[in-house]
Amino acid sequence: MKATYLTPVAYAALLFGCAIASAQTSSPPSDQSNSDATHSSMRQAFATRPEFDTLDTKKKGALSADDVKGNKWLAKNFTRCDMDHDGTLSREEYAACK
User: Fold this and answer.
1) pLDDT digits (tens, 9 = 90+) for 34-60
2) Is 75 within 8 Å of 67 (Cβ atoms)?
3) Domain membership flag for residue 5
4) How far is residue 4's CA from residue 2's CA, in Å, rounded to a whole number?
5) Which domain holds residue 82?
6) Is residue 24 part of a domain?
7) Which terminal Cβ of the chain has fewer Cβ within 10 Å, N or C?
8) CA torsion sign, 77 to 44 to 23 to 34?
9) What gap in Å lies between CA 40 and CA 28, rounded to an integer?
10) Structural contact between residues 54 and 70, judged by C-beta atoms closer than 8 angstroms
């Protein structure tokens, strides 16, 4: 009598486990995956971008390389974002830096 209930329960548990594993490892369709990944990384970069005032802790109105060293992307791209090459990022240069 017990075997009558055990088999369907075992199959249900196996099916449920496979569904959970599949949902965790599924990827987007291949024709959109590259585009979606690019948009996702762009959204993430802008979502984690701190406000200018949080980086300008000394209220100088400009950011030095030391001010942005905690932001990995901005520290790496500081020279490129410094459009007038004066060694600082103004509020306008920071806003334009993408």
Assistant:
1) 555 555 554 444 546 788 998 998 999
2) no
3) no
4) 5
5) 49-98
6) no
7) N
8) negative
9) 12
10) no
Q: Please indicate, yes or no, if residue 69 is contained in any of the structural domains.
A: yes
φ, ψ for residue 36, nearest 5 deg? -65, -40
Helix (H, G, I), strand (E, B) or coil at 94: helix
Residue 44, amino acid: Q
- Which whole number is the average pLDDT over 62-82? 91
Evaluated on CA atoms 59, 64, 69, 73, the torsion sign reads: positive
**Residue 88 to residue 66: CA distance in whole angstroms:** 10
Instruction: Indicate the Cα dihedral angle 35, 38, 43, 49, nearest 10°.
Output: -170
Question: Which residues does 89 contact at the CB level (< 8 Å), separation at least 6?
Answer: 62, 63, 68, 78, 81, 82, 97
Q: What is the pairing mode between strands 89-90 and 62-63?
A: antiparallel
pTM attached to this predicted model:
0.50
**57, 80 in Cβ contact below 8 A?**
no
Structural domain contains residue 12: no
3-class DSSP state of 78:
helix
Q: Residue 83 corresponds to which amino acid?
A: M
**Tokens 């060694």 belong to residue:** 87
